[in-house]
Amino acid sequence: MTASTFEQVRDIASDIFGIKADKITAHSSPQTIENWDSMQHLNLVLAIEEKFGVQFEPEDIEEMKNIGAVTAVVEKLQSAAR
Amino acid sequence: MAKGAFDLAARRLAELWRRDPASATASFVISRIDELRDKTRDRLSDPLALTKFKLAILRSFTVEPIVPLLRAEAFACGIDLEVHIGDFNTYVQDMLDGQSALYRFAPDAVVLAVRTGQAAPELWRDFADLGPEGAERVVRDVVQRYEQWIGAFRKHSQAALIVHSLERPSSPSLGVLDDQSEAGQSGLIRQINRELRRIAGGFQGVYVLDYDALVARHGSQHWHDERKWLTVRFPIAAGYLLQMAREWMRFIVPLSGRTAKVLVVDLDNTLWGGVIGEDGMAGIQVGPEFPGAAYQALQRALLDLSRKGILLAVCSKNNLDDAMEALEKHPGMLLRAKHFAALRVNWTDKQQNLREIAQELNVGIDALAFLDDNPFEREQVRVALPGVIVIDLPRNPLEYASAVRNCAALERLTLSAEDQRRTEMYASQKHRAGAEQTFLSKEDFFRFLEQEAELEPVSDLTLARIAQLTQKTNQFNLTTRRYTEPQIAEMAQKPDWHIFSIRVSDRFGDQGLVGVAITHDEGEQCEVDTFLLSCRVIGRTVETALLSHLAKSAAERGRKRLVGWFLPTKKNAPARDFYRQHGFERQESNGAGSLWALELSRSTLRCPDWITLKVSVGSSTTKTTAGGRI
């Protein structure tokens, strides 16, 4: 997990969930972020796809249980594209 | 937080949005706007000076992720957009039930976003099983349903309705065979869409959004995301939410009234490639070939705007002679000086010129849109004149035309005959004003104008316009008496009453019917009941021509005196000295106004010799000698 991908994911999550970036860690999840419901999950997914120019498979989206997992999926797709 | 701090915060948010119009930015921007609004709710009614607009979206698919982008985009257009989303696939109940949440929301506009798969499932799936008769029945049913929904909607609400047309499948079930007949899958969906346009045309304020064209513009392969459609009922790929939002804005902006009436354009590197002052006529690029074609395409887009009634104006830092030579003589130019209602070619800063243009064309500063290739000029205008709609041109000139064509502030949802002629009317006005400055005396200018005035009796053709002028004219109106069409028609029947209307044209164009006078004879005198002139022709001595004709006509009927009241109002000061200036003497004054009289035997009133006066009597037209003494 590189710092820059994590930071970018964190900043997007910060905008979408409306909480400060420094309150978000790799372990932040629907359990710790009140706002993170299924609709916000879709918003997060779309915002990340848009920013990184990727398209997730349904299984990828399933895996995104916390911010660290989201970052890992983005990195997997990025390295596959390289 | 003071008002200035709000302006600054709002400007920063708009800037942020323009720089990075992404989903995450949208969420941030709208949460900040909501915060700003909540903070001031009790103290300032509208700290951000936004136009409030309520939009309801009825849908057969997930639209929630688009809403933040839509609201952020609306904010950047000066609109505070409140959005209500109907429940999933409940659009039928919502529209039919007058008590539904939709109508309780009291929307200004409603989007009906239904996909073909839900509106006409039989056409979308298993089409090959339908058979020709079945297919026809389905089309009939679908059209009938839409007609019912829209009819019910109109019964319950006066809001605008924007109906998504039905999308055609990108791969029809019979392959290329499908398109060999109008009865194929695509053909039938096209037929439904034609019917939707017909239905929409039967109502006020019902519009069709061409969903197929929208998808085609961005490419069907890119637009769709089948995975998300199947999993979360969201059909649009992540990169295109903004395009959906912007398409809705092309309706919302004109509906909210935040549109531009005038588009002010720069010249160098905007209307043509290169700098006329340096590159000269042979060096600038504009024409049918690359790279000049990009600029011709932009000019074509601007011509289309002027056909929609949007005025064009030039604001350019240049020497006037250089710019005019290119505007008038360059063979590649589609736009000429006559297409512009105002020209500001000088070295003054743009905000000053924009203010002057607004003043000259008699519109507010927020009715201007500004088109300039130079980001620095754009930013300056944004800061100095926040009301002006600044259009961000892309870097590549080949994309200029579509940037203008897709600009929501330049959209119109209806078009009147007057809209289509507006540029022409303003252009002839401008040439008059321009010509005036080059003449030594007013009289020389009047001669140059070659005005022709034609006096016409009341007819079916002029009745409506005459009544309209009595109702609308405020400034040059001596008595401000308002008459309806039936009242005018009745007066025209009475033998002692005479109604005159005057039509004026000059070397720049036809001004139409611009003046009305009504007199009635009583004993030895003829009283002017009504005398008015449209402000378009005030100060061009048309009033003298008309009055001289009244005097002549009264004398011919054996009257000795022409009398008339001047009844002052808040607005008719321009007419105050009219009778005095034409040799009338004041007879009496009372609280309402003053009565003036002219002894016809002693009158020197005559038609100015620079106006050719024609008098038509019914069908025959007799020409009187101009300047004939009475």
How far the N terminus sits from the C terminus of chain B, by CA atoms, comes to 73 Å
User: What's the β-strand tally of chain A?
Assistant: 0
Structural class of chain A: mainly alpha
The Rg value of chain A, from CA coordinates, equals 12 Å
Percent range for helical residues of chain A? Answer: 55-70%
Which term fits the overall shape of chain B? Answer: globular
Shape of chain A: globular
Give the count of helical stretches of chain B.
25
Q: What oligomeric state do the depicted chains represent?
A: heterodimer
What's the name of the CATH homologous superfamily of the largest domain in chain B? Answer: SGNH hydrolase
CATH architecture annotation name of chain A: Orthogonal Bundle
Low-confidence stretches of chain B: 619-630
Please tell me how large the radius of gyration of chain B is.
Answer: 31 Å
For this structure, the CATH topology of chain A is Non-ribosomal Peptide Synthetase Peptidyl Carrier Protein, Chain A
Rounded average pLDDT of chain B: 89
Q: What is the number of E strands of chain B?
A: 20
Strand content of chain B: 15-25%
By CATH, the architecture of the largest domain in chain B is named 3-Layer(aba) Sandwich
SSE topology string of chain A: HHHH
Mean pLDDT over the residues of chain A: 92
Describe the structure.
The complex is a heterodimer of chains A (82) and B (630). Chain A is built from four helices and no strands. Chain A is an all-alpha fold. Chain A is 62% helix and 0% strand. The longest helix of chain A is centred in the first third of the chain and has 15 residues. In chain A, α1 crosses α2 and α1 crosses α4. Chain B has four domains: 45 residues; 207 residues, Rossmann fold (3-Layer(aba) Sandwich); 162 residues, 3-Layer(aba) Sandwich (Rossmann fold), CATH 3.40.50; 182 residues, Gcn5-related N-acetyltransferase (GNAT) (Aminopeptidase, 3-Layer(aba) Sandwich). Chain B has 25 helices and 20 strands. In chain B, the strands form three sheets. In chain B, strands 11, 12, 13, 14, 15, 16, 17, 18, 19 and 20 form a ten-stranded mixed β-sheet that branches. In chain B, strands 2-1-3-4-5 form a five-stranded parallel β-sheet. In chain B, β13 and β14 form a beta hairpin. Chains A and B meet through α1 and α2 of A and α2 and α12 of B.
